[in-house]
Amino acid sequence: MRVPDLGEGEERQALLDVVLAIVADPAIVEFCRLVGKPADAARGLAEVKEELHTALGELEQTLAAGDGPVRLDADGDLVISPLSAEDIPAEAVALKAELTDMLPFAPIVSLLIEMDKHTGFLDCFTHAGGKQTRTAELKRNLIAVLIAHATNLGLTRMADACGISYDVLAWTAEWYVREETLRAANLALIGYHQKLPLTPVFGSGTLSSSDGQRFPTRGKSVTARALSRYFTHEGLSTYTHVTDQHTTYGTKVIVATKREAHYVLDEILGNATDIPIVEYATDTHGVTLVNFGLFDLLGLQLSPRIRDLGKITFCRTGSKTEVNAAFPLAGPLLTRRCNLDLVAGHWDDLLRLAGSLKFGHATASLLVSKLSASGRQNALAAALKEYGALRRTIYAVRYLSDPAYRRKISRQLNKGESLHALKRDLLYAPEGTVRARHLEQQTEQAWCLTLVTNAVVTWTTEYYGLAVDAMRAAGRRIDDEVLAHISPAHSENINFFGAIDVDIESELAQLGPTGYRPLRVHDTLF
Prior knowledge:
The protein has 526 residues and is α/β, with parallel strands linked by helices. The protein has 2 domains: 8-82 and 259-401, no CATH class; 93-195 and 443-525, no CATH class. Helices cover 52% and strands 9% of the residues. The chain has helices at 8-22, 25-35, 41-65, 90-102, 108-119, 138-150, 154-162, 166-176, 179-194, 199-202, 264-269, 289-297, 320-326, 340-345, 347-358, 364-373, 379-401, 403-426, 439-473, 480-483, 504-509, and strands spanning 70-72, 78-80, 106-107, 207-216, 235-243, 248-254, 279-281, 301-302, 315-316, 336-337, 494-495. The strands form 4 sheets. It has a 5-stranded mixed sheet. The protein has a two-stranded antiparallel sheet with strand order 1-2. A hairpin with a 4-residue loop joins strand 5 (235-243) and strand 6. The longest helix is centred in the C-terminal third of the chain and has 35 residues, at 439-473.
């Protein structure tokens, strides 16, 4: 979709006009059916009012207790105590140590070879020119290229480490390793991970989160920016999307100074996996009123962790007198009345806007950035922000009244942080500094890192499952509630360093008749 060459304000409006024109009435009916939204504005807003009323009733009860982590002070101001650190059971810590001792120790090369045997992910790397013939050495070369990018060694150092010439590695990278094939290979790993017996213990797969991870850069790049808080000189961000089952299904390189909230919906809507995402967590950087509105219109729940939540503006749907009478404690917190007439007047266009994203007619990051920058003179953007403010209020009221909800969000964001730590371990040379200068090269390296990270998570999940099965077969009781606290974003059993010998036949021979490496089982564990 090409935006006309107009002034800034005109360009935003032209973009919205094009998007709205794409979605016809029959498509809107289908869209409403898919996301469970009424096409009628009165009915849709009535449902929202009822949702807010129910949430306020729960918050009223919470505030009435008067002594909890969420309460009102003597002046009637909201007090929100910090969420305490999650209490991980001691038996989960002990079990994690036992599992670590039981898992085999494998070089990263061996791990990738083993994962390819189980998933066939290397077959997803097809020749850019359509060439069908694959040499016997192709998988060996692909593994070397993936490790070179994922560990930040680069092709020159990898050639020295593995004995494969630089020319061969460079040719393989040029013709086989690109975003399209990396995404396909990543899907193969995620699909296999979803089928492992232990995976559902980590989560249902319906909750997802995203966060940015910053890396320093070397040399000039269009994506690099100075950000003294994170970089000595310049750097970039990778914005990743992860599930509650610890797999990463989306990666995007963005300018470190750009707002992450504009990119939240891209990978969710472009998700080619079978992951049924219905709820999404992020931090303050991933939140805007536009996102709150669009998420709900798309049938999704945005569940962020917002800094200084008590300072945001809460909206009401009725008069101040009515709300305060119904909810004497929670009502006064709702200081602004939502302009429901504005939302109702643009309900059809709001559905068309969300439908254009759902059906892939527009890129979410482009549309969100334009809408977020639009002022009050753009009536559609104003209506979306008004609806987003109402949805944010419902979320905040639920968040304040439900400790389990707050804990779930925090736990999911911590899963993303554990994957960031694993990526830091992988991208070790030279000190994690990205040397690729062009966006295409940086994107390919980011996807290589994501692919190898998912391979590590999948391998660890599979061997955790084998170790747990061995324990249970020996009479040990291992509860799933305890296993849920153990993350497969784990690198203690994997060697990323040293000489790299890519000998596929030799590595496969070590797997034995079961197709797996033997566990390091000790009698004392049982």
